[in-house]
Amino acid sequence: MNLLALPGDGIGKQVDALLAGAVAAGDAPGVVAALSTPQETIYEGAFGVRALGQPAAMSVDTVMWLASMTKPVVGAAAMQLVEQGRIGLDDPAARILPELGTFKVLEGWAPDGTPRLRAPKSAITLRRLLTHSSGFVYDTWNPDMARYAKANDLPRAGSGRKVALRIPLAFDPGARWEYGIGIDWAGQMVEAVSGLRLGQYIQQHIAGPLGMDSTGFRITPAMRARLAKVHQRGDDGKLAVTGFEVPQEPEFEPGGGGLYSTAADYQRFMRMILNGGRGNGNQVLRPETVELMARNAMGELRVRMLPTQNPVLSRDAEFFPGIPKSWGLSFMINEQAAPTGRSAGSLAWAGLANTYFWIDPARRIAGTVMMQILPFVDARALALFTAYEKGVYAALA
Questions:
Q1: Strands annotated E in the chain
Q2: Is 71 labeled as catalytic in the residue annotation?
Q3: Rounded CA gap, 71 and 267, in Å?
Q4: d(CA 309, CA 255)
Q5: Whole-angstrom Cα distance, residue 219 to residue 229?
Q6: pLDDT digits (tens, 9 = 90+) for 149-158
Q7: Confidence (pTM)
Q8: Which of 154, 185, 196, 371 is positioned for an S-S bond with 149, CB 3.0–4.6 A?
Q9: Quick check: bond before 59 cis, omega within 30?
Q10: Which helix (DSSP H) or strand (DSSP E) does residue 128 occupy?
Q11: What's phi and psi for 307, nearest 5 deg?
């Protein structure tokens, strides 16, 4: 589909050439990109294969692991319950999940190597869970939590094992921003309040109403027939197929990163945000809720660089270094215009396997680039996303 709504002849062909060239150069085995206005998808492109060494071609309906692009969907689910008065955004989350009142802060290590823990000075709330200011972090980017997880032989949150969520807080709730498992806990709050499994809730109240027919924690047979494999880039720069898949019979459905979806489906979700909560003829969120979600929700706190503790999974991660970034409910917000052309106040985030999206309310567009490559922010994958975004804004100029 060409970029018919954008000025400039041949822009669709230019983006096609960019994506096809990246696949030919080995930057990605396959890539899907899309761009929407509030009314429609105005560009879709798919290039390469779903798995190296296999003939199945990438397509706009190829199913991919969203990883942390799951988080905004779960954030929307939680905000539906805030709208209904069933969850208080700033109430202690322990009122709904008493377990959240039992966590202590890891403040160091004793000489014998045991962790030093203390009671937190403030309460975990849904706002803090959705803005990554609750004290929960990921061991992938936090050295103390990496040490704690290794010492206690803990699985990752994406394993779907409940014990993976039983980690101490890295800081007092509200004290700083650091990316973590907070939205896994927000998903647990959705389950507790709704009485539904998280995937059931999302299907009934978000994915179903929006027509996102290929989105879910469980990979259905129809989805599996279109599934792309996750690849790993080695130290030699070459890509290899991995056997990674989110566990399909988990103890809990990981709200922080367990969804599978397609670029076409995710465009439907982003168009809903652009349209003030309305999509596919259904009002999924109130306009004032979407406006609240799109504003800085953590005050003076700011997003920081994430230093990797596991280079196989992620490189050091920060988008647009030097530009102040806050967090909404639950999106990263760049507070100044980005060098790609992205407007100040845009919403964005990404997934571990190099899936990326942004929503620009000022320019009324939403775009995504989806690959299935580890590590996160792989230099070549990130460069492709950046080039695609720059190309879009150059066409809009």
A1: 30-36, 41-48, 64-65, 105-109, 115-118, 231-233, 239-241, 260-261, 278-279, 282-283, 325-327, 332-334, 346-351, 355-360, 365-370, 373-374
A2: yes
A3: 15
A4: 22
A5: 13
A6: 999 999 988 8
A7: 0.97
A8: 154
A9: no
A10: helix 126-130
A11: -80, 125
Q: Using alpha carbons, list the distances in angstroms from residue 355 to 52, 199, 261.
A: 18, 20, 11
346 catalytically annotated: no
> Structure tokens of 18?
């960019």
- pLDDT > 90: what percent of the chain? 94
Q: Choose, from 71, 261, 314, 330, the residue flagged as catalytic.
A: 71
388 labelled catalytic: no
Q: Residue 355 contacts by C-beta under 8 Å, 6 or more apart in sequence?
A: 64, 65, 66, 67, 69, 368, 369, 370, 371, 372
Structure tokens of 46? 């798919």
What average pLDDT does range 285-295 have in this prediction? 98
For residues 237 and 229, give the distance between their C-alpha atoms in angstroms, rounded to a whole number.
18
Q: Of the residues 36, 59, 68, 214, which is catalytic?
A: 68
Sorted by sequence, the CB contacts under 8 Å of residue 123 that are 6+ apart come out as 92, 93, 94, 101, 173
What is the spatial distance between Cα 184 and Cα 181, in angstroms, rounded to a whole number? Answer: 5
Provide the pLDDT confidence category of residue 188 given band limits of 50, 70 and 90: very high
| Pair 381, 29: CB distance under 8 Å | no
Q: What's the Cα-to-Cα distance from 325 to each of 140, 220, 271, 296, rounded to whole Å?
A: 21, 37, 23, 9
Contact 262, 215 (CB under 8 A): yes
pLDDT at 4: 40
Instruction: Write out pLDDT tens, residues 114-136.
Output: 999 999 999 999 999 999 999 99
Two tokens at 396?
Answer: 């809009």
d(CA 356, CA 364): 18
Active-site option among 43, 138, 179, 260: 179
The pLDDT value recorded for residue 168 is 98
Does residue 247 have a cis bond before it (omega within 30 degrees)?
Answer: no
- Evaluate if residue 3 carries a pLDDT over 60: no
Average pLDDT over residues 7-20: 75
Query: 346-380: per-residue pLDDT in tens?
Result: 999 999 999 999 999 999 999 999 999 999 999 99
pLDDT at 2: 42
